[in-house]
Amino acid sequence: MQGKFITLEGLDGAGKSVATEAVVSTIQEAGFEVVTTREVGGTPIGEKLRELVLSRDSDILPNAEVLLMFAARSQHLEQLILPNIKAGRWVVCDRFTDSTYAYQGGGRELSFDRIAQIEQWAQGEFRPDLTLLFDTDIKTAQQRVRQIDSPDRFEKETDAFHDRVRAAFINLHTLQPERIKYIDATRDVEEVKSISQRFIKEFIDQAHG
Fold first, then answer.
1. Distances (CA, A) of 30 to 24, 180, 195, 197, 199
2. pLDDT (tens digit, 9 = 90+) per residue, 120-165?
3. So what's the pLDDT on residue 141?
4. What is the pTM of this model?
5. Rounded to an integer, what distance in angstroms lies between the CA atom of residue 179 and that of residue 162?
6. Which domains does the chain have, with CATH numbers?
7. So what's the pLDDT on residue 148?
8. Cα dist. 53→36, 47, 176, 187 in Å?
């Protein structure tokens, strides 16, 4: 039996990292082996590209940026994600292609159709089985990020940029509500974890019940 692919999405500071442990433990308690990973990154090449695209010193133009995202993703898919899924493991990934639509499509205002074309070329029909979207207002997200470390290249963008990113995420949820589950991440941390676990349990029941 193949494993499943679960992704966590949202603005930086929305609570993805906080919920990851709860998501992983819920899957493990159901008897499945779990591999965690992230984008941009997940592989040695992907991590090098992560340093490049997140560095505040990088002067990357939007078209080049989206291609770098998919270059890292292609490596990630072939080297880590697909082999583990085929081996029966569940893969939980912090960000995937929905972030490309949100950040490069929404934030950078690149063509969603063009991103879809690259997605189809790089991924074929492969898509996440379930996505948890952690949504919060821009101010709250930024306050949380600044408590951790200095902002990276995306985090230091304007409020207007992040407003477009957030709107794109919400639009993706509206278009694909069966796959993308909305979580109000302004709630208490324990409540966010609980909601995340509920969505995972419901998915496991549907997939393996």
1. 10, 21, 17, 12, 13
2. 999 999 999 999 999 998 888 777 776 666 778 888 889 999 999 9
3. 75
4. 0.94
5. 23
6. 5-208 (3.40.50.300)
7. 62
8. 21, 10, 28, 31
Average pLDDT of every residue of the chain? 94
Q: Residue 61: CB partners within 8 Å, gap ≥ 6?
A: none
Number of Cβ within a 10 Å radius of residue 141? 24
Question: SS3 for the chain, per residue?
Answer: CCCCEEEEEECCCCCHHHHHHHHHHHHHHCCCCEEEEECCCCCHHHHHHHHHHHCCCCCCCHHHHHHHHHHHHHHHHHHHHHHHHHCCCEEEEECCHHHHHHHHHHHCCCCHHHHHHHHHHHHCCCCCCEEEEEECCHHHHHHHHHHHCCCCCCCCCCHHHHHHHHHHHHHHHHHCCCCEEEEECCCCHHHHHHHHHHHHHHHHHHHHC
Straight-line distance from the first to the last Cα atom of the chain, in angstroms, rounded to the nearest whole number = 14
Give the pLDDT confidence score for residue 152 in this predicted structure: 81
207: which 2 tokens?
A: 């997939």
pLDDT of residue 208: 73
CA distance 95 to 8: 6
